[in-house]
Amino acid sequence: MCRRTSLAPQIDEGFGVRGQVVDAMAPEMEAARRGAITTKGFELEAQRVAKLMRDKFDIGFLDVGGWDTHVGEGGAEGYLAGRFDKLGRGLAAFATEMGPVWRNTVVVALSEFGRTFRENGNRGTDHGHGSVYWVLGGAVRGGRVAGEQIQLTQATLFQNRDYPVLNEYRAVLAGLFGRMYGLGAAQQGKVFPGVRARDIGLV
After folding, report:
1. How many Cα neighbours within 13 Å face the side chain of 175?
2. How many distinct structural domains can be found in the chain?
3. 44, 46, 47, 194: most buried by Cβ count inside 10 Å?
4. Are strands 107-109 and 114-115 parallel, antiparallel or unpaired?
5. What is the pTM of this model?
């Protein structure tokens, strides 16, 4: 349909530029993944980790890449939504595999940085500061938003582009470790040096 309009050359040029940007950003996005598994492989890996934790270990970690959405992030559907779907499927598979042990389990899904609120020129978002941590499990006092919150307005955005850091993730983890493993302040300081633990009543 566009080819029958006078704007066809400009539209073609726009799609061509977009393709060049995607190609140019691909190495950076791959490097940001740091060899982590993709969301596509997360479900299987989550099941494997659940088996190990259920039978032998108390703590497990999985690093999942593919969240560097500088280009073509999408909304309710698209690149990012597809990855959230796979992340959700993996977390559900983990919970199922844990079986009865799930009632004593805490899972934290977090990123070390967030994304900007404003879309960039490539229909994606760039690196931001504040983010969201998901805490789930049979031992979690859930169904709520916990920690410090502020009203989202232009005045409260950090550098007028992204959410400020209100609940530092290492402090939140230290608070969780204190509750779950009975760690005192000195022990928490060894695990998270230079961080003051923050107990926000998640468990």
Report:
1. 18
2. 1
3. 46
4. unpaired
5. 0.76
